[in-house]
Amino acid sequence: MKHVHGPEMSNEQLAEYTPRIEGLARDHGLSFYPVDFELVPNQFMMEVAVYGLPVRMPHWSFGVRYIYQYIQHRMGNSKIFEVVFPGNPNRAYLVDDNALPENTLVTAHVLGHADFSCNNQLFDRMQREVGFHIVEQAAERASRIQDAIETHGQRRVEAVLDAALALEANIDVNQPLNRRDFPEMEEPRVRPRPQGFQRHYSELPGEETEEEPQRRRPAAIPPQPEYDLLWFIARYAPELEGWERDIFLAVREESFYFYPVFACQIMNEGWASYWHARLLREAEFLPHQVYLDAIKTHSDVVRPYAGDDAVALRVNPYHLGFSIWERILRDCSLDEALAIRRDEDDFSFIRNYLDEDLAAELELFNYTRRPGAGGEERYIIRDREIDALRENIIGPKFNYGAPRIYVRSMGVDGSLELAHDTDTDGRGLDINRSRKVLNYIQRVWRRPVRLETVDHAGDTKVLEPEDTDPEKA
Hints:
Layout: E1 2-3, H1 9-27, E2 35-40, H2 42-51, H3 60-74, E3 82-85, E4 90-95, H4 100-119, H5 121-130, H6 134-152, H7 154-166, E5 185-186, H8 196-202, E6 217-218, H9 229-236, H10 242-263, H11 265-282, H12 288-301, H13 317-331, H14 334-343, H15 346-353, H16 356-361, E7 366-371, E8 377-383, H17 386-394, E9 405-410, E10 416-420, H18 422-425, H19 431-445, E11 449-454, E12 460-463
Parallel strand pairs: 1-2, 2-4, 10-11
Antiparallel strand pairs: 3-4, 5-6, 7-8, 9-10, 11-12
Helix pairs in contact: 1-4, 2-3, 4-5, 4-11, 4-12, 5-10, 6-7, 6-10, 7-10, 7-19, 9-10, 11-12, 11-13, 15-17
């Protein structure tokens, strides 16, 4: 266990508990890459949580997020116990001034995360795509971007980061990270040989015709709808310089890395919460008071409501995931649970294992918003219909939580036509935000850009950037 500064005696005891908790986890069948634990100050922890990585590309949006997180922390609405980065090794950060019971629980919790990320198929695929050393890779990219700032100026680099980070959710995880460019030429179609009667007819005297040789033609770009906007802009923007393309690809790679964290949040947090509770319960080497205080922290982590509220309008992923896993491991064998952990993500997990009985037990419901007196909104419980409930939980996770936008075509003049996939998305666009993002895109695409969507009545609506100032390109 590495200490950034001034470790307290209680956390020195934690260094003694850690290998014993790891051994207990492996005895239960959990398997994971090594975990490097590091004790850090609370301020550093907030920075890591906000930036997503210990060292990351500089951008003003992270500062905005930090201010929000700092205010939430000072108001007592947010407490960060740990941040863990999957890899080989895993990197886990714990707050150095948390009490020994809290950090003991967090250590067991991190081991649950480490097992999940090592064995879940989605995590494993993305780790292999991106590489197992994201912390070092992100730091190296941040250094290159800082070099670009010194060479090209803050304003130019920030304009590229604005566009790339505005599109960080617009990737296609069904495509490989390292993919080939589209073919430049379209292969000629081979005319099928006649069959049956047509073959006999073509063989009659005088019916033979000499076929014109088929020629290769320039291929359409893209040849089919392209949903990975970061990749497409990096590869096909007409005038992007190498360092600009590098920024888009760097943001894309980090988005691939973070996608499993987003798509498996309920499963992953629930799995880690189940195992921290079980491991601590069976860790006979822990002093009784440490165990009791740790379990009190566990109750705070997996409580269904925030603060003293009697109703929660947002699902606590720790509570929901823990409750589902607790039932699975009660009703199934450990081997079956390990297989579920390996094969599922939040979409299938919620659809397959959140049933009506558990939803009723957890007091989950569907609600609607209605205007109330004085212009304030009222929340009305609508029903507890299980299929709608499941979709309301996982719906915001669809497509990384972003509108499903694709490249429809690229004109011969380099113009870019985007479209909103309303058939599969089912969500409307925030028009003002969409225009702002189009402004960002046009500054780096440097050709006309338009986006086609539909309005609330189902009629086609075309959006174009409002900002055409060439000085901002």
